[in-house]
């Protein structure tokens, strides 16, 4: 329930509504408008490639060597974004914060990015779509991104003064998520309404469980 409702203080209760899909309470790190169905990739680590393997010391002997290393990183990130674009991946959903160079090339190749998602949000998206977070590409840039989720729409949403991300997914089961936008004059009233609704849903869940048993 926590991931499927958003409390918006400062608005009348009559402004409350139910939206299809899910609402992520953060702004796009990069937003590239697109029409129609697209594919999304879930990641849990920064996409900027490391210069060395874990536990291996990297020694830079000169400014030229350092600049050469930065150029190598830039080329790798650009190749990755080009690869995602060719696989029709136009949305990155990341639990990790991505570096500016990743955001730059994502915008350049038309890939929207939402970062710093919570583990609960990632788990909900995985449950809806049946898709697990993607492992690192490593050295294999030609490997197809098969573990992708189908997204029916992806757009900004303004809730009062807060910018959010509104996404619709094609689910793998009968569960079609909807998000409750709960409005009220102050946070305390919203919290009371949210608690009451959660208790009501819990009661209905228990009731239907009893009936179907």
Please give a handful of descriptors for the protein shown.
213 residues; alpha/beta; 6-stranded mixed β-sheet; 3-stranded mixed β-sheet; 9 strands; 33% helix; 25% strand
Write up what this structure looks like.
Strands 3-8-7-4-5-6 form a six-stranded mixed β-sheet, sandwiched between helices. It has four helices and nine strands, in the order ββββαβαβαβββα. Helix 1 links the parallel strand 4 (38-43) and strand 5 (89-94). It folds into two domains: 1-20 and 177-212, no CATH class; 22-173, GroEL, CATH 3.50.7. It has helices at residues 63-86, 100-108, 119-129, 187-212; strands spanning 5-9, 17-20, 22-24, 38-43, 89-94, 112-114, 149-159, 162-169, 178-184. The protein is an alpha/beta fold and 213 residues long. The chain is elongated, with a radius of gyration of 21 Å. The model has no long low-confidence stretch (mean pLDDT 82). It comes from Anthoscopus minutus (Southern penduline-tit). One of its GO terms (molecular function) is ATP binding. This is BBS10 protein. InterPro entries: BBS10, GroEL-like_apical_dom_sf. One of its GO terms (biological process) is chaperone-mediated protein complex assembly.
